[in-house]
Amino acid sequence: MAGPSTRARYWVETLGCPKNAVDSDKVAASLVADGLEPAESAGDADLVVVNTCAFVEAARRESIDTVLALGGARKDGAKLVVTGCLAERYGDELAAALPEADAVVGFAGEGALSSQVAPVTFRPRRRPAGVRDLLELPRATPRAPWAYLKVAEGCDRSCAFCAIPSFRGTQRSRRPDAIVDEARALVTGGVSELVLVAQDLAWYGRDIGEPGSLAPLLCRLDGELAPEGLRRVRLLYLYPSEVHDPLVATMLELDTVVPYFDLSLQHADRALLKRMKRWGSGERFVEMIEGVRAREPDATFRSSFIVGFPGETEPAHDALLQLLETARLDWAGFFPFSPEDGTSAAALDGTVPDALMREWLRECDEVQDPITRGARDALVRAGAEVEVLVDGVDDDTGDALGRTHREAPEIDGVVHLEGAHARLGSVVRAKVIGALGPDLVATPIEVLA
Description:
By secondary structure, the chain is an alpha/beta fold. The chain has helices at about 20-35, 55-75, 85-95, 120, 130-135, 165-170, 175-190, 215-225, 245-255, 270-275, 280-295, 315-325, 355-380; strands at about 10-15, 35-40, 45-50, 80-85, 105, 145-150, 150-155, 170-175, 195, 230-235, 260-265, 300-305, 330-335, 385-395, 400-405, 415, 425-435, 440-445.
């Protein structure tokens, strides 16, 4: 019998958005290529990597707290590396403030983290990869029947509240062949649902001279990978001005692409959106949503909104509440404005008092929560039959957990398949019989795949 492994072990802790999760997975694959193997926990690892988020102040605090906690809990001799957006944005300042970290590594070093600390211990076998190369690194072995797939890095927009372009750079779209190759590897590894992500997904291809190429990419993924086991493609982060008819038509026509529209709306008041350096108005957003619903009544809509942006007034806030009442989004999130260094919004006048911001947030929840519950309860009353991709197990009951097209992984609710013990990755047709908070309860009818 072989003895215990003597290879160094790593642990990657991921904070922030799904795009960070993709980066972490590729960093993990890079470490495996360097000769390391995954640890069962951070406390067992020889190298602990914290992939941080720097989007807003709360995310930065969480990142710092996580670094401090993991630094204090690591085993003797273990190395701690801080990477991701916080490391890229604050660099030397962060390194000076965190003596617990053995290295603070920006994007350009993520592809060869083991070479950043203790090279005698880890003996890296790979040359460092630059920030552009990280997108093309292989993925670690899929751990679930779904996976995020990043199709571009960076962003060309100049939204007043967002600092991401300052440290992620301008948009860099991947070539379609590279995306399809990575998607094929994921599907071969057992992934049934691909979740396409980018800072500005609907802008994909414009920087490589191929504007409007998201729809053709979806056609390729559907045509080439559906026969190999791809069941679903989901799109996250669609800037509303780029959701044109060719893209909508493609999303509604292809069998694998789910009618889930994650629209980055941010607000409803035209003047405030202009102040945010954003496109649109409540009227335009409602027209877009109603147009899609007229073609596909089962389409699902999610968005997020900033509350308390400088200059927001009671009438502007009322316009947001009206949008929520009219658009009747299936899912929505509301976030207090956070002034970020290096953004134009940080210097704007018209600061909204914290107490008023909290009141407005409460009012948004009071309007949206019954709408979200209503969409769920309508499925219960109708005894709707749904297709559920099984991607988990309820720890208490042992029942299978999954998602319909209505639920994005890690963001929305789930479906409890009562009495079912289906394998991960299977697709089950089921009847909705109840609800548990934001979740649905369904009884299995048949296994489809």
